[in-house]
Amino acid sequence: MSSIFSPRAIAFVGAVTLGALGLAACQSTLNNDIAQFNAAAANDLPTACALVSSANAAFQTVLATGTVANKDVALANQAYAAASIICANPSSVNASTALQTLANAYAAIVRARRAS
Description:
The chain is mainly alpha-helical and 116 residues long. It has one domain (7-115). Helix content is 84%, strand content 0%. It has three helices and no strands.
């Protein structure tokens, strides 16, 4: 009768255990990397908010000429509204997602300004 604790069974359990520990370490490293990225992105939010605000101010100047198409005005206003929510309370959002939203808002406002 063979034992359930054969060398082969012990080696298999050891390999599975090492694999599980390795995955746990990877997850821990990934979580740490995400936290560091979010912290760095959070530091960039004030600058991104200032850029969006400046782009919107320039857009408002062009908008006053009356030469901007309604669809471009709507897109720029929608983008600025989304950015304003983030910039009003940056600590309430995921910083990396917020930074992407602000970059998209900036691009939409600049495109609308250039479309006129």
